[in-house]
Every structure is written in structure tokens, then in C-alpha cells.
Amino acid sequence: MSEQDSQGPARDFIGYGATPPNPKWPGGARLAVNIALNIEEGSEYSPLDGDAKTDTALTEGEGMDTGIAGRDLAAESMYEYGSRVGVWRLLRMLADRNVPYTAFACALALERHRELAERIAADGADICCHGWRWEKPWLLTREQEREHIQRAIDSLQATVGRKPEGWCCRYGPSTNTRELLVEAQIGYDSDAYNDEVPYWVEVRGVQQLIVPYSLVTNDCKLVPRGLQTADEFHALLRDAFDQLYEEGAEAPRMLNIGLHPRMAGHPGRARGLARFLDHIVGHKDVWICRRADIASHWKTHFPAPATGAEA
């Protein structure tokens, strides 16, 4: 992989090409599945935190022309549903099936919900930090972003008891993010959507592991005018799983499932997720794991190449 330049990461259109490596997942698994539980509620843009208006992203009102310039009390309550109700439903569903998960957690959200922070710690879930706040990093200066990364690390050490293993920004990174994560010694970066297995990139003379994420098998598809029913959500996730499981006989991959408590946590949507979870736990040769486990596995079996070499 090419080193970053002053304009940010170089583009790579080739990747592993037609012959990606066999990941050698534990137990010879055909597929690694990671459940990413996005915890954002309480860290979104809000006039109460000095922002111009209320965030409406991934709410039932997204895209509506409300004309509300300041606090949108309806949108605020839709976020609160996720932290008050939805997250506990999703955690029960995962616990009932002994399914591990990764907390894609915004640090401020856990500061404002200590009970949830304690649950994450007790569950042994790993942390792929979703930022200090659920903010758009490309709107920050380089120094502001550096400050927010360190603030998030310090916060998570206080609430969950440890530094995050990985990082994934809201939607995507700035041109500075990857360098700043290396500087902060974050173990892996998930701000990429371009592959189905991890890979290494060189960042200012340091090899950084990329564990790609997905916005396809993600409940962001449940926003208004998107998928509307549990059956549609289940079909999307199950078809992705079945396709990758079939391919995994020859070329194992990883499958990311992104969940938001204020979206998938609603009962009419959660049923689709429940059916999907029951489907995958009934399969052999599937490694359902934390994201940090995938990163650790890759570092062990596919260690970073020498600086300057192709990843």
C-alpha cells in the first residue's frame, strides 16, 4: 500500500486482486462475523452542547423539513429511545444467544450513560471508538481532531476502564485522521469500506492495520424511505451471510453487521435481527467474534510488512 501524502491517504484500486489471502480464521471457519453496536446517543450535535441545531441523522424524522432551527425536541427523544430502551433490547438479544459484540462507542455518550459503560465493561466487549462525540471529523482542524481523539481515549479509560482497541469515525475520516490515530497508537482503523478482509497500510513510516467496515449490512438502511420491515432487514443480512458462507469454502471473508439502538432497537425491526442471529448461530464453521479479535488474529497470522514494502 502507498504511504499517505499531504492530501491524505493514497487510493488503491487493486487491493488483494483476484487472489486474496486465506484468513485462516480460528477452527477453519468459513466466515468471521462481527456485530458492531453503535452507541451515539447523547454525543450527537445539540444546541445544549453549543451546536446550531439538533442532529436528526438516523431518526424517524431524518429528511423531514421541520423548519426547526434550534432544539428539535422530537429528534432528541428519538435519540433518547436508543439509550433508554433500544440498547437494552439489543443487548438482551445478543446475551440470550451468547453472541459477542464490539461497542462502536462515542466517549461522551458513555460519560452520560454510566450504567451502559459498566455493562460494556462487564460484557468484555471491545471498543472501536466512534469519536469523542458523534461528529464529522472533516469539519475539525487537525489540532482540534488530535485533541478530540485524546479526549476520547482519556474518557473511555475512565468509563470503561481501558483505551479503545480501534477507531471508526462518523461516516468517514478526515484527511488527517489516519495519521492522528497512528500518533495516538490506536491498534487498528476501521475507517474504510473497500474490502472484506483486513489489510495493512503505511502511514508516515508506520504500518497501520485496517479492519474494513460496511454501510451495506447496517441498519442505516432502516431510515425513512429505506427498508421498512423486519423481513427486509432480515433478508438483507441473511443473504449477505449466505453468500459469504458459500464463498467461504474457498475464500473466507468477514461480515460486518452495524446496529444502532435507536434504529434496530425498535421492536418491529428487532424481530428481523433476531431471525438473523438465530440463523447464523445455527451454522457450523462460523467465527462470531469481537472486532479486536479479528485485529489480533490478523496481526498474528499476517504481521505487518517491513516499512516501505507492499502490504
Automatic annotation (TrEMBL):
InterPro entries hit by this protein: Glyco_hydro/deAcase_b/a-brl (IPR011330), NODB_dom (IPR002509)
PROSITE patterns from the UniProt entry: NODB (PS51677)
UniProt domain NodB homology: residue ranges: 73-289
Function according to Swiss-Prot or TrEMBL: Is involved in generating a small heat-stable compound (Nod), an acylated oligomer of N-acetylglucosamine, that stimulates mitosis in various plant protoplasts.
Family: Belongs to the polysaccharide deacetylase family.
Name under which the protein is recorded: Chitooligosaccharide deacetylase
Species name: Aminobacter niigataensis
